[in-house]
Design brief:
The chain is α/β, with parallel strands linked by helices and 334 residues long. Helices cover 48% and strands 15% of the residues. Helix 6 packs across helix 11 and helix 10 crosses helix 11 (156-180).
Length: 334
């Protein structure tokens, strides 16, 4: 029996809508797995781990843990392998290694932050941001009583979770930069990491920043001034602000770098305009929704929008380089 294109689309919609209904289940189960330390225990076991031993190691109730593991095996977070004729065990995958706390490619801290109660609460207020009658406060502030930055400054636990999440993403992104675009740091003798050599960030952030080698932690306000250096490095900073504020920050960066050989290194998403997006491009659209939900005026930008803020900031030229990450490298020159 032939099925028309419309019937196929309707059949697909019946499946897709259930994925939206239970879309939160995946993040909830992954958060549960991180908190229990499932990936850590299985990785350290070194061979397929029987459910009974996993339950004992985690001090979990056997049948409930089985249901959690069955769900994660379905989504290929872990894999099941035979141990003998009667027993199967659970093994690590590249995906499960992203859930190991402190692992080389761990996203655990970022996932715990993204699934934290104040962060999730913001999504429930997203519609208030879109309405014409919006009072122009962010969904985060509507849900939590303070904007993201004020809430983070006055809530030590959230500040810690936020900083760990940003450090987690930074480690992975810097690895991608070094592997895919190492020349970006050629000739750079002094570097200021704006919002993070010099680590320059808000005073309450650098107050708890660990000491690392010869790196100097400097507290300040990027809207006021930035230390003089060869290059300013901004990763996931500018997407938090609107065009006017971005231009202020970039002007401060331009003042801080050397006129003849200085540059600003920006690590941000670059949205594709009116083009079919690939998987990494789709993540850029997801990030844009996160900016709408959690910041007052933040957004992800297209290449045209980046060109506008850079030109308005006084930069005469820039280039954009892709890396194996959701972000791109943008090098801007006076």
């Amino acid at each position: 029996m032939e099925v028309s294109g419309i019937e196929e689309e309707e059949a697909r919609a019946e499946v897709d809508i259930w994925n939206y209904v239970f879309g939160y289940a995946k993040i909830a189960v992954v958060k549960c797995a991180i908190e229990l330390g499932i990936a850590d225990v299985i990785e350290n076991y070194g061979s397929p781990m029987p459910l009974s031993e996993l339950a004992t190691a985690l001090r979990c109730e056997l049948s409930r843990l089985h249901r959690i593991m069955r769900f994660m095996v379905h989504y290929r977070i872990f894999k099941q392998e035979p141990i003998n004729q009667h027993t199967v065990g659970f093994s690590s995958t590249p995906l499960s290694r992203c859930l190991i706390k402190g692992g080389e490619k761990s996203m655990a801290a970022f996932i715990l932050f993204m699934s934290s109660p104040p962060w999730l609460a913001s999504w429930h207020c997203l519609n208030s941001r879109v309405l014409e009658t919006s009072n122009n406060i962010s969904p985060f502030e509507a849900a939590n009583g303070k904007d993201l930055w004020s809430y983070t400054e006055t809530n030590p636990y959230h500040n810690e979770v936020f900083n760990e999440a940003m450090a987690c993403v930074a480690r992975l992104t810097v690895q991608a930069i070094i592997k895919g675009c190492p020349e970006v740091f050629d000739g750079v003798k002094s570097l200021v990491d704006v919002g993070g050599g010099i680590n320059f960030d808000l005073p309450h952030v650098v107050a708890v920043a660990p000491k690392f080698g010869s790196i100097e932690n400097v507290g300040g306000d990027m809207f006021m001034s930035i230390p003089n250096v060869d290059a300013a490095f901004l990763m996931w900073i500018l997407h938090d602000w609107d065009d006017e504020e971005c231009i202020k920050i970039l002007k401060r960066c331009r003042e801080a770098i050397l006129e003849d050989k200085g540059k600003v290194i920006i690590v941000e998403a670059v949205l594709e305009k009116d083009k079919e997006v690939d998987e990494l491009g789709f993540l850029g659209l997801m990030l844009d929704m996160a900016m709408m939900a959690h910041t007052d005026k933040g957004k992800e930008r297209t290449l045209k929008e980046w060109s506008y803020v850079l030109r308005q900031s006084g930069f005469t030229r820039f280039n954009v380089k892709p890396i194996r990450a959701v972000q791109f490298i943008i090098e801007a020159y006076p």
